[in-house]
Prior knowledge:
Layout: E1 6-9, E2 12-15, H1 16-29, E3 36-37, H2 40-47, H3 51-64, E4 67-70, E5 74-77, H4 82-106, H5 109-127, H6 134-147, H7 152-168, H8 188-208, H9 211-230, E6 244-246
Amino acid sequence: MSGDTNAVQGGRRISAHAVCAAIRDDIVSGAYQPGSRLTEELLARRYGVSRVPVREALRTLESEGFVTTRRHAGACVAQPSEREAADLLDIRALLEPLGAERAAQRRTEAHLKVLRGLVRLGRERAQGGRLGELRPLGDWFHETLAQASGSPSLAALLVQLRRKTAWVYAAAPGPRPAPLEGAVRPDPAARAMESWAEHGALVDAVALGDADRARALATVHTERALSEFRLRRPIPVRTSKHSVNTASGRN
Length: 251
């Protein structure tokens, strides 16, 4: 194989970008816990590629904050502090409304077509109680909205912030805190319907080119979404300086 950042798998070339996305998805899903080692050899075996694209992927993930390099341990899954976790929410609260405002000013008809289609699908899934299918639709919606901002730098930041927030605030093991006496637990289906109604109103504002309304609607939507993260605990961070949990070979 040549020394570029592509690998051959099943007769087709696998890019370092694809390997990076696979490792990132496994980090976000919890397959690799914070602090666990990420060895090139094991990762190459797991994803069926050479160590060259794995090495490139780890460098990219380090620049994104998902991976850190430790002396004598090599690449490991990062261990964000609670302060860093809180900062992620504050940054998202600032940037997502800006992205919506820019989208109202710069969106194309192609963006609107995709956004409207996703809102239609999201509402259908929510009404049908198919809540497990909403997360990827929501991710697609927000990525498209970010791209509609017309700013590749802003879009990349927004996508990365959403990934990192989902990862850092992944549900911690153990029971959730009991609600305060008299408090009513929100109905997931009702909240999903409300969320996709907010998405629809936001698309309408973007379609009309109403930047102020798009920003205001995005602010409300973002604050509601981030308040749910604030009720969770960030993923636990370890205090040990020793390496832990070598990457497994889960398929």
